[in-house]
Structures are given as structure tokens and as C-alpha cells.
Amino acid sequence: MAIDAGTTGVRAMAFDAAGTPAGWSYREFPQHFPRPGWVEHDANDIWGAVVTTLGELTASLDAPVIAVGITNQRETTVVWDRTSGKPLHRAIVWQDRRTAERCDELRAGGHLPLVRAATGLVLDPYFSATKLEWLLTEGGVEPTPDLAFGTVDAWVLWNLTGGAVHATDPSNASRTLLYDIRSRAWSDELCALFGVPPSCLPEVGPSSGRFGVTVEGCGLPAGTPVSGIGGDQQSALFGQACFAPGMTKNTYGTGSFVLMNVGDVCPDPVEGLLTSVAWTLADGTTAYALEGAIFVTGAAIQWLRDGLQIIDTAADVGPLAASIDDSEGVFFVPAFTGLGSPYWDPYARGTVTGLSRGTGRAHIARAVVESITYQTRDVVDAMAAAAGREVTALRADGGAAVMDLLLQLQADQLQVPVARPKVPETTALGAAYLAGLAEGVWSSLDELSSQWALDAEFTPAVGPGTADMRHANWQRAVERSRGWARD
Length: 487
What we know:
15 helices; single chain; alpha+beta; 2 domains; 6-stranded mixed sheet
């Protein structure tokens, strides 16, 4: 079974030994926006959704649960009291921008080279360390011996095990700005830089390995092994069976995240991209990944539905966008919370350019869908240059990957085939694979790789000249969005 604790809800999914879905349950939880650019969750809401979905799913199954894995929204920062188990502040979500000025200060202070070399990341409010620093300096959280910090996986694991285990895995630890991805250990130097007491940090165990067992009241039978943890994007890379260096996937979710497996040697920092631990197996085998993080893709479709109200459901965007053949020069840059890879501009804001009197709902909808493909191309181009190898195919997953128009436009922009697997829930599947591999359900990565099956493949329908012209105009629109909120 997998617990997929995402940004807007929790999904519990069960899989059989063939990697086939055997049931699922889903619950949304509230989002909190106390100020512009601030995004928070109530950690108790997340845990409540975990208990509900696990309980519903377990009740629907005819077979016992062999093991459970956790996958989660990364970087989101949770703090709680070890004695009471109660959150000490709302969780600060990965999308939150409140520490943008602090990141500017750290860059101006010359700290970026240390951060890049040790973590593979950049100084951006996206990551956990400045969020945790803010909680300790401005959020009213005291650095007592009872203070526990974790990303969402650690919070869920703590509660599953009744407070017995405070731990995470390298894929999540490597997204905090506090973890040295070469030595694969928490960095005392980085903890000192951000004013973080090392005593509050979780232990780091293999992504595939037993962390502990469940207790009564969590929705699972007591004693169920919790045997896998992976940050959502690394888990999707695992679920897509991208086990060989060079294999690449994109998850089209609230944001989109392009990851390339670059093997077992940590590469040097790459401009515009992130380097993370993809996973560590029980035998110590470690894979690294280059990553391009795109903050807003599926969230832009939600904005069409909830903000502009030009569609009734998210599923309406595909038919509406496909009702016209061209966006007629309209470009949408969804920089609602800044721009991620390869720009890393927290002050960018959303723009729509190229409007004319003839612009209608369909043009805006198509421009939103096209923006997802352009942002992905920005990342893939940077990734190919950094890795010294062309991306020859892309495996696609995530909620928006059901949209044929999106994947066709993506193939057009990348000029390579884009493949959608038969099991689209690759994030949850990856967490289940990590847990099952640890408990002997599957014996090897080769066995897991053999279970990947193709649903549909999309090949380029336009030439590179047309794709390049459209992408060049997109980049003009991006330039107009950059630095907008600096004042």
C-alpha cells in the first residue's frame, strides 16, 4: 500500500504483486493563504486525511497489507512537540514565498557556493531550511529539546508509529538545504548557517527499508511494516522504472517536475537545475537525479476553474483548448509564486501577453496548456546541456497526463516521443515498490522494470522550426514576467 500525501489531498492506494492498482481512497484537505505569497497547511488535517483514506481502503481489500510506503509533497516544513505530538505552527508549504528576502540576504552574504556544493540546491524559499529558520525566529517556535522538524513524510511516519520513529529518507532530506548529498548526512555547517538545532532533525534511513510498524488507530492493522519513503518526484521516477542513467520522466501535477536519473555518482552543481538523491536502497545503492522544478502547471488549470471560472471542472480544459488550432499569439506565464527551473526568480508573477479583441476563453485555455509544455522544454533543454546527453524520450505521469492534447504538444516542443504508462499513479506506485522491495515482494529492480507497460505514445507532429519559433515567443513572454514583484 502507498500513502501519497500531496499538496491538496491524500490518496491511499493498494497494489498487487503485478503492480496493478487494487483500490484507492482520496481526501482533500484545506489550503490556507494568510498573506499574498504565503501558503500553509494544518498538519492535523493531513494526518486526518491519512487515517480516513487508509481506513476506507483497508476495509475494501480482500487481502492483507504486506507493507506500506509513504510518498509526499516535499520541502513543506512541519514542526511538532515530541511529548504531546501536537503541531507547533501550521506547516509552511513548498509553494510559500515568505522567505524570499532572506534568500536574497544569504546570496548577498556569499553563502550560495556552500549551499550549492553541499546540497545541489539553490537559495530559494522553495526549500525547507529558510522556512524552519523563519519559524524559529518569527513564527514563535522555541528551539527546545522537544522540538521535532520534518517534511510531511516524517510527520506521517511519526503518527503511524505512535511517535516511536522520527525519521525520513535521503530523497526528502536532500530537499531541506540541511543535508549534504555527497556524504549523505545532515550538515553541521548548514544547520549553523540557518540556526537549526541538529537535535530537531529526523534520522535518515534508506528509501527502501523498514522504518517501523504501525500502531492502532491509524487506519491500518497494528504491526504493519512501514518500509518505504520517497519524496513524490523521486518516487514517481522509481514508479516509472527509470532505473538506468539518462532515463527521464515528467510528473504533471500541481507543479511539474522533470527528473533524469544520472547514476550513482553525485554530479557537480548545474546552473538552473537541482541535484537530489533519487533513492537509496537497503544495500546502500544510491541513485542521484537532476531535477527541474516547475512551480505551477496543474495549479494553473485549477485557477481557470476557481479563479477565472471559465471551466467547470479541470477535465474541461482539454476539450476547450482543443476547440481551436492555435492560441493566436496568446501566451500565459503561470508565475503565481515565482518561476522555478531554470530561472529561479521568486519575484516573477503571472502574465498573459498577446491579447487582442478576438481573444476568448479557448485561447486562454490553450495558452495555459501550452505553458506547461514550454516550461517543460525550458527544463529539458537545460538538463540535456548539463548532462551532456540528449533526452531521447520522456515518460509522463501525473493528473494532467491524461490529456492527449498536452502530451502531443509536449512531443512537438521536445521533438521526442512522450510515453504515458498504463498505471498513471506512478508516485504512489513508486512508494509501494520501495516498500515491497524492502519486504521481499519484489526481488530486484529488473523485476520492477519488467512491469512497466505503455498506454499511449505521442510523437512530434510539427517540425523543429515551428516548435522553435513558438518557444522563442514564449521566452519573450517569460522576460516580461520576471522581477515583477520585487518592490
